[in-house]
Specification:
By secondary structure, the chain is mainly β. It folds into three domains: 5-105, Sandwich (Immunoglobulin-like), CATH 2.60.40.1530; 116-231, Immunoglobulin-like (Sandwich), CATH 2.60.40; 234-352, Sandwich (Immunoglobulin-like), CATH 2.60.40. The protein is built from two helices and 28 strands.
Length: 411
């Protein structure tokens, strides 16, 4: 029974054929069990860090010795007690060097006529965030009149909650948290805090129930419950990239990258981009989901983004006129976004007339010459050309009478 001393015995036998020198027996106490004393038929025992060690000396072939260990248990449980034997002599069969036995430790029966009215109250936050943890606290009060012995509080976690941690004396198995809170005197109370992870968006009821080893003439207050609304909170951010300059008629890409900074899943993530009239959409690509274009408004439905996940949309457009155009994008989600400052981004793109290609023969090579807008004429060359034309005119005038004479002679 809980609080009652009891003993277990371990017998060491040497099956030979040689003497077993320096025999040692060890037994580690299970949790919830406290050492009282130990005695050996030969040798002596000590306790250190919850392990009983007995130095039994030598055992002749066929000899045996028994060690008795006395303990007490603080909680009702099934405990496994074991003992291991070893020696300095070679053992060619170690399979039988350990033995174990299970002991069921129960709660003492209540005193005749004892009665304890247990009252359970449960407190929890009104809301929690998906992807984060919250703690609910069970308060157990004994309204008396008797002491409630061996009190136990149990709480089965509903779907969508995952166990994180609990106070000392509590353990979780298969989704149920069990807390052994010991004896509770009349008029006193104790608490147990349980921390869980909120995995699903929902309104969830957490509950707890209490029992003890004493009769309870009012079981209507032995359970407690609280409701918690689990909501989604996701901080989306978007960043936009595009070239700063393009030419009219040129197609170019602008890329919008969306990141979910958490802590929750960003459900129904959507990106919207309304383009100015001088930019015409030519194609769209989404990292996940799909994009559509309606009269210059591009909308990309990315679906759900888990915490830390990112995706991108690439939109190809063509510049139609000479202009500086602002391209903007914005993201949204059905979850609560706790930071709207990073939900949009804008970049400016300037478009210009394409440069005119040079005419054939440009570059100063043989086969042609080029007169550029900024060319400067050589003054000396122009003067030479003008002088030559004047001299040619004078010579032609001087030869005119001779041409007439030659014509009269028929020459």
């Amino acid at each position: 029974m809980v609080g009652q001393a009891f003993s277990y015995m371990a017998t060491a036998l040497n099956n030979g054929p040689s003497t077993a020198n320096g025999v040692v027996l060890s037994s580690t106490l299970p949790a919830g069990v406290s050492f009282v004393n130990a005695s050996a038929e030969q040798g002596s025992c000590t306790i250190a860090s919850g392990t009983v060690n007995c130095n039994l000396g030598d055992l002749a072939n066929g000899a045996s010795t028994t060690t008795t260990i006395t303990v007490t248990a603080s909680t009702a449980q099934v405990s496994s007690f074991s003992a291991t034997i070893s020696s300095a002599t070679l053992d060619n069969n170690t399979a039988d060097n350990i033995a174990a036995s299970a002991v069921t430790i129960g709660t003492p029966p209540p005193a005749p006529g004892a009665n304890a009215d247990l009252n359970v109250a449960l407190s929890a936050p009104a809301s929690a965030v998906q992807g984060e943890s919250f703690t609910y606290t069970v308060t157990l009060l004994n309204n008396g009149p008797s002491t409630a012995t061996g009190t136990v509080v149990s709480s089965t976690l509903p779907a969508g909650l995952s166990f994180g941690s609990a106070d000392a004396g509590c353990a979780q198995a298969a989704g149920t948290v069990t807390c052994n809170l010991g004896d509770l005197a009349s008029g006193t109370s104790t608490t147990a805090a349980i921390t869980v992870g909120a995995d699903v968006v929902q309104t969830v009821n957490v509950s707890a129930a209490a029992t003890s080893g004493v009769a309870d003439n009012n079981t209507t207050n032995n359970t407690g419950m609280a409701s918690v609304a689990v909501i989604a909170v996701a901080d989306l951010s978007v960043s936009l990239f595009a070239p700063s300059t393009v030419e009219v008629g040129q197609q170019f890409d602008y890329i919008a990258t969306v990141l979910n900074n958490g802590p929750s899943i960003a459900s129904g993530t959507t990106l919207t981009s309304t383009l100015p009239s001088e930019l015409v959409v030519r194609s769209m690509r989404a990292g996940q989901g799909t994009c559509t274009n309606a009269s210059g408004t591009v909308m990309c439905d990315f679906g759900d983004l888990t915490r830390g996940a990112n995706t991108a949309a690439t939109i190809t457009v063509e510049a139609q006129t000479v202009q500086t155009s602002d391209i903007s994008v914005a993201v949204s989600t059905s979850a609560t976004d706790n930071d709207a400052a990073n939900d949009s981004d804008t970049v400016s793109v300037s478009s210009s007339i394409p440069a005119t290609p040079p005419p054939p023969g440009d570059g100063g090579g043989s086969g042609g010459c080029t007169l550029n807008n900024d060319a400067e004429f050589d003054v000396s060359l122009l003067g030479f050309i003008a002088l030559s034309l004047v001299q040619f005119g004078r010579r032609r005038a001087a030869l005119s009478p001779w041409r007439k004479k030659l014509a009269a002679l028929g020459i």
